[in-house]
Amino acid sequence: MSRIGKKPVDIPSGVTVTLNGTDLTVKGPKGELAMSFVPDVTVEHADNAITVTPSGETKQAKSMWGMQRTLVSNMIEGVTNGFSRKLEINGVGYRAQMKGKSLNLQLGYSHDIDFPVPEGIKIETPDQTTIVISGIDKQKVGQTAAKIREFRKPEPYKGKGIKYEGEYIFRKEGKKK
To answer: Are 123 and 147 contained in the same domain?
Structure first.
């Protein structure tokens, strides 16, 4: 039994929800998001809340129950507050800056990396070693942060590379003489 799936998702004021069969559209002050539900769950919109229930007793229906409820919750959170992810760059000469609609990264390679900003994502560089990724879609924000981090993952000896804010890098000791 899903414990998170049992909780209804409350709809805050200023957010409009439209439910057409298996399609859900959420509009809020930050933007609009839409999704389609899997056929294994049923969705009801009543009393300013959305309730997700499994349509059967199959393992697939029980698996999708909590996930679909969380996706709805993330959509409502995204259109009201938005999501953001912060990346930190460590290393001598490593830096990032915005150039038009692309992020320019200098990460110790022989060339600069130009990362085009995806649609619906906003990237800011408050200083040369910090990247702030924000948007209304939690999946897109996380995926964009993961792609940027992939260009130079933090290495365990000196900790150089791109890491998430607050991420702990397991450090190793170097060679001994």
So the answer is: yes
